[in-house]
Amino acid sequence: MRRAAALAALGAAAVALSLAVSLASIARHYEGAVTWEAAQYAEIGRNLLETGLWRTRAVTPWTLAALDARGEAFDTAHPAPVLDRFALQSLLCAAAERLAGADDAANAALSALLMAGAVAATYAVGVLFFSVEEAFAAALLLALDPSFQRGFVLWGYPDFGFLILVVLAGSALCAGRAGESSSARGARLALAGALAGGAWLARSNFELWLPLWAWALWRGARGTRARDAALFSAAFVAVCAPAAVYDLRHFGGLNPPTLAWDLADKVMTPSQPWLYYRVYSPWEVLVGHAPALARKFLALSALYLRGLPWLWQMTPAFGSALIGAWSLARGRQEPARRWSLLMAAMLAAQIAAFSFLRFETLGAHVGGRYLLWFAPAELLLAARGARALARRWGLERGGPVLLALLCAAWFSGFWRQPQGGSTYPGGIGAARWPQWDALAAVGDGLIVSNMPAQVAWYARRAAVALPAEPEDLARIAARHEVSAILIFRIGAGELAQTPKWIAAAADPSGAGRAQWSRLGYRSERDWGSAVLLTPASGAR
Predict the structure, then answer these.
(1) By C-alpha distance, which of 345, 367, 358 is closest to 219?
(2) Phi, psi of 426 (to 5 degrees)
(3) Over the stretch 95-144, which tens digit does the pLDDT of each residue have?
(4) What's the mean pLDDT in 521-537?
(5) Cα dihedral 336, 338, 342, 345 sign
(6) What pTM was estimated for this model as a whole?
(7) Chain-centroid distance, C-alpha 513
(8) DSSP string of 488-511?
(9) Rounded to 5 degrees, what are φ and ψ at 531?
(10) Computed from CA positions of residues 19, 22, 24, 30, in that sequence, does the dihedral angle turn out positive or negative?
(11) Which of 199, 304, 363, 434 to pair with 192, CA 20 to 30 A apart?
């Protein structure tokens, strides 16, 4: 009993530290929903609260083309079915907004809580499979990691929830021990299936690991393989079913369109594929562009492998993690070895698959978002490696402590660096940007913007992302009423992703006037940070 209380106290301390660091980071650096994901998930959560429907007022040109092809209405009064966001983060945002109000503060608090949940999951898995010292060191380092706390916590991504569920589901799958009863095994595997289903709701790319999980189940007791697989599968399907049925109804498939987008990225289109007013299929990319796809695979594989030692500013831990993996492979600690092997195999499978899809760079110190779920495994393996090294000098239990001190010193250098400039001139938070009030004076049609999710969240208007091609804007306007075009020149607007608009957006009343006039728009107002264009006289 005393040991359980001590273990709980250590875990609570790591969680409390994470929350304190997150809240300090938010208080100092949070500027509102400046990422597309943060704004759109917040907006979807609000729609769930207000209407009970999983809908959004922010779409990409690709999504709009898919809606048009299926005859789905889209405007401010008719939000679109959600085709390219994940269900779990939407539900979590709705819950946070119900408890704390539908505003940025609720969603910032949700990020802090999910970060703390990632720390708790890391600690729990460490206690289960490793040692208390290793678990506590890994949890502390995750809580102090500047890449997480100064980046991901501020940006509202769904990846913390995914991390928690992947880590816990893998633990439930691998936690079997000698002498486990049949009923306990069944309950454990059903829990693993339910948690895995939750992970699929958090990020649908979980499905690429299902063959690995089937292999892990098949390696179990021979007499119960079919029963084990049935229990796991039933729980997995039960959790996934509502979202899967939704996708089938509105999209005609079990997956959001991101697979086709990511295959086509840098293969069929120079700009991001979702910014084109057309629909792709994976088959179209695989059959028609196989050589380009193969070249992309080689290039992205190199980027992924080259980037592994530098992920999340954990560089001192990477070498130690390799030693920890080697130590586990040679040892006899079977549950820990099973879990670590599963995590490593999942990492290899994801890198192989994603090298055909997408490599995302968010900056020098906050990359690797798609691999975020692996951070607990890296830190726990690093703690094990430090312990194995320290054993040579009779300091076995001190190894994780020394690793924690080394990494904390390494982190401190990044914590001392400036955060960077404000997203908006004057440091004005996104909720108070003057552009939202200006949109109230334009018509009821669509707003085309390079920050459509923010338009939907803050101004409650139906918005479509600025298409990559000017011709696509004309095609959209021919089918939908476009009341205004709002282009932000700030970095968060990522105008560089649509290079054909840069010159026109820079000087819409001068050098870019001819292009806007040709499309039927004129400059209405220019704030410097953004420009608002409305249909010219006589244009719709």
Answers:
(1) 345
(2) 80, 0
(3) 999 999 999 999 999 999 999 999 999 999 999 999 999 999 999 999 99
(4) 93
(5) positive
(6) 0.94
(7) 38
(8) E-SGGG-GGGSGGGHHHHH-TTTT
(9) -135, 140
(10) negative
(11) 304
The model's pLDDT over 514-523, given as tens digits with 9 standing for 90+, comes to: 999 999 999 9
Neighbours of 85 (CB within 10 A): 20
Amino acid making up residue 318: F
Contacts of 109 (CB under 8 A, 6+ apart): 96, 100
Q: d(Cα 166, Cα 172) in Å, to the nearest integer? A: 10
CA-angle at 277, arms to 275 and 281, nearest 5°: 90
- pLDDT tens column, 331-353: 777 788 999 999 999 999 999 99
CA 440 to chain centre: 31
**How many angstroms from the chain centroid is the CA of residue 300?**
19
CB 436 within 8 A of CB 458: yes
User: Quick one: tokens of 408?
Assistant: 């904390």
Which pLDDT score is estimated for 87? 95
Helix axes of 225-251 and 210-218: crossing angle, nearest 10 degrees = 160
The position carrying tokens 């000087």 is 507
Q: Is 488 left (phi over 0), alpha (psi -120 to 50) or beta?
A: beta
Q: Determine contact, residues 80/72, Cβ cutoff 8 Å.
A: yes
pLDDT at 217: 86
pLDDT score of 222:
67
Please give the helix or strand (H or E) that residue 439 lies within, else none: helix 435-439
Whether 269 and 278 have beta carbons less than 8 Å apart is answered as no
Q: Which two tokens stand for residue 385?
A: 């490696």
User: If you compute the radius of gyration of the chain from its CA atoms, what whole number of angstroms results?
Assistant: 24
Tell me how far CA of residue 364 lies from CA of 32, 83, 107, 264, 420, in angstroms.
22, 30, 25, 25, 12
Strand partners, 75: 78
The token pair at 286 is 């695989």
CA separation, residue 507 to residues 101, 210, 423, 529, 539 (Å) = 39, 51, 21, 12, 21
Residue 460 in tokens:
């409650």
Tokens representing residue 200 in the block = 């699929």
* The predicted structure's pLDDT at residue 221: 64
Tens digits of residue pLDDT in 177-222:
877 888 899 999 999 999 999 999 999 999 999 999 999 888 766 6
Residue 540 has pLDDT above 70, yes or no: no
| pLDDT reported for residue 47 | 97
